[in-house]
Every structure is written in C-alpha cells, then in structure tokens.
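Re: beginner question about structure tokens

> Can someone show what the tokenized structure looks like for a real chain? I only ever see the sequence side.

Sure, here's an example I had lying around. Input first:
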Amino acid sequence: MLVTTPLKYAAWYYLPGFATRQLLAVFHVAYVHVLRRPPPPPGTPAYILHYRLTYLLFAVTYLIYNLYDAATTMEPNYYEILGLAPTADGNMLKSAFRQFARRYHPDRAGAKSESMFIEVRDAYDALKSPVKRFAYERFGPEALSWTQCTTLREYVHHGLLQASGFYIVSFCSLIFFSFVSSPSPVSYWRYIMLALTAAYELLFLLNPTAFAPSGSTFSSVLFTDPTSAVRTGLFSLIWPHRVPYQHVRFLHTLWVLGCFALSNVAPVVFPAPSVEIQEKWIVNEAQQIATLSAAIARETNAHLATLFRSAHGPPTGTPAADGTFPYLGAQPPDGGKPADAVVVLLAQEMEHLILETQMRADGGPLKSAVENAVERRRREVARAAGPWTEQKQKVVNGSAAAIATPGRIMGGKKERRLGYVRGRSRSLG
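And the corresponding structure tokens:
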C-alpha cells in the first residue's frame, strides 16, 4: 500500500495523456466504420474536441477507480471486526467480544491469530471507557496510546493538534507549488477544497457520540448527527459501520486526488486562450474604451459649450457668443482668448458644480438641504421672470440643456435671466 499509493498519484502526470491517445485511436477507427467518413485530422477543432472529451472521460474513470480503491482497502475498525454497529452499547460490545474470543483465541485458532486477538483485546479494554471510545472513534487507534490524556477535553485538544499537521503540510505544499510551477487557473480551487475538507473534518470530529445521547442537533451535509434515529448522511449511507476517523482519512484522500485531477484535467479541458485570441481580446477592449472615451468627450463638450454660451451677455458685460469653448479645439472668432470675466464666472460655476455633486453624493440631511435650496431658488427665479418668460428645451450636441429665453422689460426693470443649466447658479442667475 505504501508503494502503490504514490505510484497511483504519480500516474496522473502521464497515464491520462497516454491512455487518451490510445483510446482516441480506437475511437477514430470505430468513427470510420460507423459514420462512414474519415476522422478529423490532428489540429482541427473537431479533433481537439474529441481529444478533450476522451481525456475527460478517462480522467473521471481513473478518479473513480482511485476513490473506490481507497475506500475498499481501508483497514476495518474494531466494530467491524466484532461485527457490531458503532451505536452498540456496552453490553453488546461485551457480548460480541466474548464471541470473538471463543473464535479467535490462540488456544483455539492457533498462533496465527494471536496478534489480532491481542490487539482486539486491548482495544476492548480501552473501549469500555466512554472517553477512550470517543477518542478512538474520532482519532483512530493511535488515540488509545495517548497515555498523557485522561479527560475528554485533553483527548480533543491533543487530537485536533494532531489533525492540524495534515493541513499545515498541505497548505505549505500548495504555496511551494504555486511558486515553482506556472500560474494555473485551478490554484484557487485547491485552497477552497482544502478549506472545505477542514470544515467537514471539524464538524464530524466535534459531533456528539452515538453511545452518549445528547440534545445536540449539530450536523452537516455529509455527516449527520450520530444520535439521530435516521442516519441519512452520505457517508453513513455508503458505510454505515464506519466511524469518524475512517471518514476523515477518506476525505484526506479525496482532497489529494482532487488536486491531482484538477491540475491535470483543467489545462486540457479548459485550456488557456492562445496568443492570437488574447491579442484580439485586447484590441476589442481598446476599441470599446476608445468608443466610451469619445462619448464622454462629446458629453463634456456639450456641457462646457452650454456654460460658455451662458456666461456671455449681461452677467459678464460681454457680447453674446455662439462659438464653442476655446480649449475644446476651436478658437474664438477674433482669434484671442475669452474675456477674464467669462473665465472667472466659468471657474466659479465649475466649483459650484463640484461642490453640489459632492453634497448630493454624501446623502443624508445635507443632500436634502441642497435639494430644498435648489428648488427654492428655482421658484424665486420663476416668480422674478414673470408669466411672459418662456422656457425652452434646447438640445446641444445631443444633450438637453434648459436655457432661459431673454425676458421682456417692464416698467424699466429688466427680468432676470436663468443662466446655468441646472437652474441654481447665483452667479449666472
């Protein structure tokens, strides 16, 4: 067992590929006779698909074989040797040992059964103690030799320390292989599998014992509460006469096999994209970024153009301008720079816009106060404008902006002009 197990693990690196090539050759021979057409040549998409499916089929079959072998070659526990269920009480255990002694005592069965008889006898003497029985079921026969432990707490503490060794070595191995091997998409799943294995082991090791009923309903998906009358857990259905330490050892084997299977199957069934595909993906992403950047630039130009036009006129004492903002690529009609008053006013408006956006984003009472102030300012402007002012919806480069039409003059008083697009600016209002 010590020799064959490492060979079974090492076979994952060469056996699936070799067996896939042989099986694929046989499949293509049947492919010709059944479908009456030549098999796909190597390198074509159809051939690659056949290879991946064949590889996956063999890998799954080999994984099932390894799990079956690990389950069937596990050494029996003392209950199985005595022909008892793990829920047997002390009287049943005593009666079963007497029957075992009558059958396998060295005086009756000969010297060949002496070692097994001594082992079971010592185990029976230890299992008569509920504390040692609890420790044996969860930590295996090694727990019976922990002479430094006397209480249940001491056995659990020592057993958990012993169990942590497997996870420390496994975690360090994963880190080591992540440094010495090329990056793999399955590295993340190895850590997830290890964490799940540790969680299920803890759940089962800390479950209440079957021969000491308690009111606990602590259970998991794989392992049900051993005190339950109906044992419907997955492992309990498959191996009803096994005890926790055997399930834990099978979990360890399952994790190791799962790591080998993932490391070899994932790169073949889900290969990394080729260099050409990666280049096409990068070009596509760059085109999308360029498209979004152009859309953002157009939207920004529209808002800045609106501000630029609104800043001219009575608020700044400058003539009206229909051009675009000079720093967006176009120059003013006279070839010079905009008036200083216009630049100062635009700077104030941008500052107000940033402050208002930040206050709205913060939420809470400040946001409500800002919204109330804006609404109040709009009502004031509407009352000052009078019923003759029309509000038009003007579209600038695809963006809607509410611009006030110059009002009429009544009684020597000029109506106020609504400036900034959001209708709240005091400097443009």
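Each token stands for a local structural state, so reading them left to right follows the chain. The radius of gyration is 40 Å.
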